[in-house]
Design a protein that fits this description.
The chain is mainly beta. The chain is 3% helix and 36% strand.
């Protein structure tokens, strides 16, 4: 029996957004304001983005940035084995920075593009491999989060707003894979992965049970217990297609027949977030992350857990893979992917200088880090050879060429 996981009170969004990038401000004394009240205000800078302090001197990003030194100072080797996974001449590049909260990167082998979600603006974008452009793919995605492509090349997306998992068929039609379990609507499907046997696995925490990334519950629901949130304003589809009351957290498997099975309950693993398989699909990794709307006190432990996948698709032998503590700090893991050698590449939030990507070998040893100026929500391997690591970090998309390949379909 899988044991319940200890609680930790580090909020997910507080870790990823609050700690990952601390805003800089300017203080003006009241005396100075009184003396200069008739003066013309000085021109304000075009951006208030704080300087990046992950390197010294501060690193510059964007199209006009000078080339970084090689090896890249923000690609940090902790164990010698990490060097074998790196292309020594590669440097981190910021591909795009016009999002709000980017999530769910997935590589389309047929389309040769990277799909990604902006959970706040409710759009999907794609990064075109041939040109490097980022264009709007779906102007309305119903606050989609996680995405993947199955082994037939079909796009699968988790929609927070409509609280469902859908598959886009090759003819352009949408097929609902899951929107209810045991008579109850889902919460806000978060991350999703495909299995070669045709099944789809996904997590269903409550991070989209709010108006920022989805919609809140109706009055009396866990995400709106006192009814103060005006849950129907601005979104006429609420209550017609999406769920209206939060249920317990689950990790689900959708059988190829369409049957939905619970593989982990809230008691077994609260607040399930990112998940991925080992390259041989014999193990399932699941992140238990922090507090969410309407959680009523139940909380995850900000750790990565691993389970053996049995032949009947049930899980056994639960164990801690990593507690995600680094230099005395509890980091906040979110999404992850395995490479072909079984190493786990995990996006993490935390203090500036520590956040970015952590890389673990199959035994759970931290072997390398990638420092970024923001916590990483999710990542994937892409490119025609699957040897480019794409990282979603707040408003920005980053990439790094590596000397390994992603495992799995997307």
């Amino acid at each position: 029996m899988v044991q319940a996981i200890r609680r930790n009170n580090v909020p997910r969004r507080a870790v990823l957004q609050g700690l990952a990038c601390v805003p800089a401000g300017l203080a003006v004394s009241s005396a100075a304001q009184a003396a200069d009240h008739n003066a013309v205000a000085p021109a304000q800078p075009e951006t208030t983005r704080p300087a990046d302090v992950t390197t010294t001197p501060p690193r510059q990003w964007g199209a006009g940035a000078p080339p970084a030194y090689t090896p890249d100072p923000d690609v940090m080797v902790i164990d010698r084995s990490f060097r074998d996974l790196l292309f020594s001449a590669a440097t981190i590049h910021r591909v795009w920075d016009k999002g709000v909260w980017l999530e769910g990167p997935a590589w389309s082998a047929e389309g040769r593009y990277l799909l990604l979600s902006d959970t706040v603006t409710s759009r999907q974008y794609r990064y075109l491999w041939e040109t490097g452009e980022v264009t709007v793919f779906r102007p309305e995605s119903y606050h989609s989060n996680g995405n993947t492509f199955d082994y037939q090349g079909r796009q699968i997306s988790c929609e927070h707003f409509l609280r469902r998992v859908i598959r886009w068929e090759h003819d352009g039609s949408a097929h609902v894979l899951a929107d209810r379990y045991e008579g109850h609507a889902l919460n806000s499907p978060n991350d999703v992965i495909a299995h070669p046997d045709g099944s789809i696995w996904f997590t269903d925490p409550g991070y989209g049970d709010g108006f920022t990334e989805g919609h809140a519950d109706e009055p009396g629901g866990e995400a709106n217990p006192d009814g103060h949130i005006r849950w129907r304003i601005g979104e006429e589809l609420i209550g017609e297609l999406g769920g209206v009351k939060r249920q317990a957290d689950h990790t689900f498997r959708i059988d190829p027949s369409g049957r939905i099975e619970c593989v982990l309950t809230q008691e077994q693993l609260p607040n399930p977030n990112g998940l991925c398989f080992s390259p041989d699909h014999a193990r399932l990794y699941v992140i238990s992350s922090g507090k969410q709307a309407g959680g009523h006190g139940h909380d995850g432990d900000q750790a990565v857990h691993v389970f053996d996948v049995k032949k009947d698709n049930t899980l056994s032998n639960p164990r801690l893979f990593t507690n995600m503590r680094f230099q005395g700090v509890q980091m906040g893991p979110d999404g992850m992917k395995a490479d072909i050698f079984g190493n786990l590449w995990c996006g993490v939030g935390g203090p500036l200088g520590l956040c970015g990507v952590f890389v673990f070998n199959p035994e759970g040893q931290l072997i390398g880090r990638i420092r970024l100026p923001h916590g990483v929500s999710n990542l994937t391997f892409g490119g025609p050879k699957r040897n480019w690591l794409f990282m979603c970090a707040g408003e920005s998309l980053y990439r790094l060429q590596v000397n390994t390949q992603g495992a799995g379909a997307a």
